[in-house]
Specification:
Elements lengths: L21 H13 L2 H30 L9 H53 L2 H6 L2 H43 L2 H48 L1 H6 L3 H53 L5 H18 L2 H23 L20 E11 L2 E11 L4 E5 L6 H8 L14 E6 L2 E2 L5 H6 L1 E4 L10 H6 L7 H10 L3 H5 L18 H15 L3 E5 L7 H15 L3 E6 L10 E6 L2 E6 L1 H7 L2 H21 L2 H8 L3
Parallel strand pairs: 3-8, 3-9, 6-7, 7-8
Antiparallel strand pairs: 1-2, 1-4, 4-5, 9-10
Length: 630
């Protein structure tokens, strides 16, 4: 089996890290919104205008009620009240709506623009992280965190600019109006209710946050299990484990349900407490206003105005608990996404790194030591050269470090970046240390046909064209012909528009590998890596593809990693790895003459192939005898 590096680092979806203050998250968000500061100021102007118009409505209601006392027959009863106050009332209502919509229209670009920029930066940063991170990640949970983080930005801006700020503006206007037109008793009752309301809301919401966080973590865990099971659909079927996976998913859903019920119970407690405070303060205010009307200190219109002001003020306050909870959750979700963006790149370009300059495309491994972990060294002082334009093959048993060489050459890892004390040596291309040049230029100069081919859930034409975005259809078809897959593609009803399915599952192993070969041939880089490039092909196709690969590698520097020795007999040099060390190296003939490790591997494989060929040529009865237990 191929060795994959593991890590003690937690998976991104589960790594909450050290709790950080909300101010830290807001400061991190600041630069994204600062770009739209003009729109923010304009939106705030519309907020103030909308709330001023909204507060003006109760004032007009007061005038309307008080003017109903006009004597019968007074001409003002038909002119002033219906045409003046009613039209003004309608105008203020319309103004409130217009200013609110203008606010949303002006700031929509800022909200969606910032969300788009953060999502794009996160996407780019995830692609810049090392292979170690992506081997450890939980795709379902991580995508959930990114989705929540992007949605959290829009929620945070929406709640703060569209609800909290307008409520504060309206509260200021209402308190000023109550204090100036009536007495301070109304102000103190309102302030006392707000303090009690805010204290209850914040304290209970802080307590509830743990349940909400637990609910989200369980949601991510259940989602990760579902995604993992769906991605490994065939494996689930191979072992009849549909019920097992359903039970695992149901366990996650049940835990999520229990957390939801707990969260909902605490929310109901919070809502009941909020309504009790609002109802008490509303009764106190109306009792005071009614007493004023009875004492003739206030008019009936004043009572209507106080009632209307309180209703307008308390309607948004009803959502304060929800808003505070959502804002806290948005902060948490944003922080998770920012933590993803802050993950340090294990493999990063050095300051001032220059692009790789290819002259001869000579590759050298110089005394390379490498370990994925301190307790598991992989390579021990590996040194060999691939002269420009030549092919060097690396062979050896599984786990000897062959594929690790390809990862190091591609700079998925650096020889000294993983475990200090176990890394060492260097890898150069035309004398340039890979750590001194940009990763992008290194990977542009190298093409790889991996052993495990994973395709995009798109058309076969798209997957081949992925080797060189923008390539013409003629170039794509030429690469497919070279990889001996063109005839298969055109035989399909949709031709090059045939969908390959999730990870290419609609294609056979050999078909997927030929697509991988085709897109590498389309890329046409000066350095090629063939990592068991024909392992999934039958013998006839393998021989045909070997001819094409040899033709494609002509004049290029090629590193061939192989298990079947018959595929590398024409290599200029063959390097035999054993336990992470070079046991032998030389041409095929030289290594056979040594009668060492390579020669033993060769004779074992040749004897195995000869036995297989003999079994194929036996008559049915003899072949059946071979299969019977002795």
């Amino acid at each position: 089996m191929r060795r994959h590096p593991s890590s003690s680092e937690p998976a991104p979806a589960d790594s909450a890290g050290t709790p950080r203050s909300d101010w830290t998250t807001l400061k991190r968000l600041g630069p994204y919104l600062w770009e739209y500061r003009v729109r923010m100021v304009l939106a705030l102007v519309f907020v103030v205008a909308a709330k001023a118009a909204n507060v003006g409505v109760p004032l007009l209601l007061k005038q309307l009620v008080d003017n109903l006392a006009i004597p019968i027959g007074d001409p003002r009863a038909l002119v002033v009240v219906p045409l003046g106050l009613l039209l003004a009332y309608a105008g203020l209502r319309l103004s409130t709506t217009v200013f609110t919509e203008l606010r949303e229209l002006v700031f929509a670009k800022a909200t969606h623009g910032a969300a788009r920029r953060i999502a794009l930066e996160t996407f780019r940063h995830l692609h810049a992280l090392s292979l170690r991170f992506h081997l450890d990640r939980q795709t379902g949970g991580m995508t959930r965190d990114i989705e929540r983080g992007t949605r959290a930005l829009q929620s945070l801006v929406s709640y703060s600019l569209y609800t909290i700020v307008p409520t504060l503006v309206e509260l200021t206007l209402v308190l000023t109006l109550l204090g100036s037109r009536f007495d301070m008793g109304f102000v103190w009752i309102t302030l006392a209710a707000l303090v009690a309301y805010g204290t209850l809301t914040i304290s209970l919401t802080e307590w509830r946050t743990q349940f909400r966080r637990e609910m989200n973590e369980l949601d991510s865990k259940a989602h990760s299990r579902a995604i993992d099971a769906l991605l490994n659909y065939e494996t689930v079927k191979y072992f009849n484990n549909e019920d097992f996976e359903s039970r695992r998913y149901d366990e996650g859903l049940d835990a999520f349900r229990r957390a939801q019920i707990k969260s909902q119970g605490t929310l109901s407690l919070l809502n009941a407490g909020q309504q009790l405070i609002i109802a008490t303060s509303l009764v106190a205010m109306l009792w005071r206003a009614t007493a004023g009307v009875v004492d003739h200190r206030l008019t009936l219109g004043d009572l209507v105005m106080v009632n209307a002001l309180l209703i307008q003020l308390y309607i948004p306050l009803n959502f304060l608990g929800v808003l505070y909870r959502e804002i806290k959750q948005s902060m948490t979700d944003l922080d998770k996404m920012f933590r993803l963006m802050e993950r340090e790149r294990e493999i990063a370009d050095r300051p001032g790194a220059q692009p790789l300059v290819i002259t001869q495309a000579t590759v050298r491994f110089e005394a390379v030591n490498f370990a994925y972990h301190a307790d598991r060294p992989i390579l021990h002082g590996v040194s060999f050269e691939i002269p420009g334009g030549q092919t060097v093959a690396v062979v050896g048993p599984s786990g000897s470090g062959k594929s690790t060489l390809a990862r190091l050459l591609y700079r998925f890892y650096d020889v000294d970046a993983i475990t200090p004390g176990h890394g060492g040596g260097r890898i150069t291309i035309d004398g340039q240390d890979l750590r001194d040049v940009t990763q992008d230029s290194v990977r542009r100069a190298i093409g790889i046909v991996p052993q495990d081919t994973v395709l995009f859930n798109d058309t076969v034409g798209y997957n081949i064209g992925y080797g060189r975005p923008g390539a013409s259809q003629e170039d794509i078809e030429a690469a497919a012909r070279a990889a001996h897959i063109h005839d298969f593609i055109v035989a399909q009803p949709k031709g090059y528009a045939t969908m390959v399915g999730e990870r290419g599952l609609k294609l056979s192993g050999g078909e997927k590998q030929r697509v991988a070969i085709a897109r590498t041939l389309l890329k046409n880089p000066p350095i090629l890596i063939f990592d068991e490039a024909t392992s999934a092909l039958d013998s006839a196709n393998e021989r045909a593809i070997q001819t094409e690969l040899a033709s494609a590698a002509k004049g290029k520097t090629a590193l061939v990693i192989a298990h079947r020795l018959s595929t590398v007999v024409d290599a200029h040099t063959i390097v035999v790895l054993q336990h992470g060390r070079i046991a032998e190296q030389g041409s095929h003939a030289d290594l056979l003459a040594l009668a060492g490790v390579y020669a033993r591997m060769w004779h074992l494989q040749q004897n195995g192939r000869a036995g297989a060929s003999s079994a194929e040529n036996l008559p049915d009865q003899s072949a059946d005898l071979l299969l019977r237990p002795v």
